[in-house]
Amino acid sequence: MTERRPGEWPAGLSPAPVATVPDDTPQPPQGPPVEVPVAEVRLVVTVDLTGRYDSNAQVSRDLRKQTRYSTDCHTAVVRLGEDALRVGTGLGSLIASAFFLAARDVEIHVPAGTRWAYVAAEAQQYMRRYAADHAQMLNRTRTPG
């Protein structure tokens, strides 16, 4: 009996060598690679607060309900109706707290001809404040060195 190591073919029973066949198919001419434009895809989250609201608590609850399972997105669009603007206090703070970490851009849509444009400025101010506060918290929790 011949010596054989595990994983080797037994003596005299090695597989037949595989014959290689030359590839005679013509090859296309090689030129510079062609660049195909790829469309940019962005996730946009829409929050609709155009319903009928009688209290600030209803507006706040509806905003939280719609953003509860939202994910990080490129743009958040918040549509505000007359009732939400009329009864909602601190809408800028509510919107900022919902999206200051999750969205890169926030659009706030209000009905035309209304005096509610300040909500966007208020949301921007709160988003800056929340982002700065979050950065401070992260800096405090990092280990030194």
Q: For the terminal residues, how far apart are their CA atoms?
A: 67 Å
Please tell me how large the radius of gyration is: 31 Å
**In percent terms, what proportion of residues is strand?**
5-15%
The low-confidence runs, each spanning 5 or more residues with pLDDT under 50, are none
Spatial sequence of strands, sheet with the most strands: 1-2-3
Order of helices and strands: EHEHHEH
Number of helices: 4
Provide a descriptive summary of the structure in words.
The protein is α/β, with parallel strands linked by helices. Helix content is 35%, strand content 14%. The protein contains four helices and three strands. It has helices at 56-67, 82-87, 91-99, 118-141, and strands spanning 44-49, 73-80, 103-109. The chain has a three-stranded parallel beta sheet with strand order 1-2-3. The N and C termini lie far apart (67 Å).
